[in-house]
Amino acid sequence: xxxxxxxxxxxxxxxxxxxxxxxxxxxxxxxxxxxxxxxxxxxxxxxxxxxxxxxxxxxxxxxxxxxxxxxxxxxxxxxxxxxxxxxxxxxxxxxxxxxxxxxxxxxxxxxxxxxxxxxxxxxxxxxxxxxxxxxxxxxxxxxxxxxxxxxxxxxxxxxxxxxxxxxxxxxxxxxxxxxxxxxxxxxxxxxxxxxxxxxxxxxxxxxxxxxxxxxxxxxxxxxxxxxxxxxxxxxxxxxxxxxxxxxxxxxxxxxxxxxxxxxxxxxxxxxxxxxxxxxxxxxxxxxxxxxxxxxxxxxxxxxxxxxxxxxxxxxxxxxxxxxxxxxxxxxxxxxxxxxxxxxxxxxxxxxxxxxxxxxxxxxxxxxxxxxxxxxxxxxxxxxxxxxxxxxxxxxxxxxxxxxxxxxxxxxxxxxxxxxxxxxxxxxxxxxxxxxxxxxxxxxxxxxxxxxxxxxxxxxxxxxxxx
Length: 466
Ligand SMILES: [Zn+2]
Description:
By secondary structure, the chain is an alpha/beta fold. The chain folds into 2 domains: 1-365, ANL, N-terminal domain (Rossmann fold, 3-Layer(aba) Sandwich); 370-463, 2-Layer Sandwich (GMP Synthetase, Chain A, domain 3), CATH 3.30.300. It contains 15 helices and 19 strands. It has helices at residues 2-14, 20-28, 32-42, 47-68, 70-78, 100-106, 116-120, 140-156, 180-192, 206-218, 228-240, 259-269, 382-389, 392-396, 423-437, and strands spanning 124-126, 134-136, 164-169, 196-200, 221-226, 249-252, 272-277, 286-288, 295-297, 302-307, 320-326, 337-345, 358-363, 370-371, 377-378, 400-407, 410-416, 441-446, 461-463. α11 (228-240) links the parallel β5 and β6 (249-252). The structure holds zinc ion (ZN).
């Protein structure tokens, strides 16, 4: 049966009688094509209609969480409320904030729905938005809406169906241990609709970039997407080596996009730069339109609240902590999730005519690049992959970490975990690091907590070598 389903799916992807946009959407997430047309229309709805739709989805989610998720059932009884007490997004304030710590304490049985067999596959480890890794189960339904919202964003900025997109992100694994068949099928699926290509954002030394740039030109990449720091590094390389890359636009995410980076990208690539916001736990939260007034929230997919340090709701235009409710993830419901980022919601609607509210002043992760003795430059998220490959998240429950390059040949990694790994495990991680960065001194330190800077933010990787 599953084989037949798969065959039908591949047949769909290559069927020339089906519109290209549906084939492309579907190559990213199975049912994204069903959501795309909906999102194209809903962006022009009135604010009232959007709110009504959002509240209806919220009621369904609340009911589902109450009926199926032990953590939420416990919280509801503890706070003396019933699902019918949460009718509209303003009622969410009656529920407590969901923190990473609560998720970790309840993971998986207290917070994930479905039976044990379901829980065996598909677990993800995220870098978290401010650096504390988290394990989670994605919901493919949410994934559909997320991908559809990405295409809506691309279309705002001149994307034509079939334009090739280059995505620079952390590698999913440094040593790809998936079975050969899985790797092959993955390539086949991506190859059927030749639209996107992933580049390893942790290989950024000049030699590596020469290959990347050559490939970008050869593959006629029309859109560049990735972390601002990674793309800025690519832009510097192009500028210094006189390479001319002419994408339609550049899309950034995952870190603060500084004005100087935006300028650099604009000047080198001679195109506009648009930011989007989401975290690995809840993706596709907000996207910048062409008017330059902020990022439109994907109201059809999530509710965003802004609160102060004590959890009080802040009025529009006031900056505070973002709490996000994912209206589509039924597998592991995130209700009032504190991702650790800050921002504000604008009172005034956008000049572009869309009534999706505007998110502004987003302050997310900051990352420095780490440079190896062999010249290799890595983005901070490389270390998440590293620890994932060494299975430290599962085996030692790593909660937080910080990487500091204090000298040219020294990298210090401070880790907060439950239980300290033995010498064998430590040496394995050090070896993996040295394989990537050359013969550097790598020191590991274990502690109870990593102190934050006064702003509450901290660099997840820090370089002191300039
Ligand atoms: Zn707009």
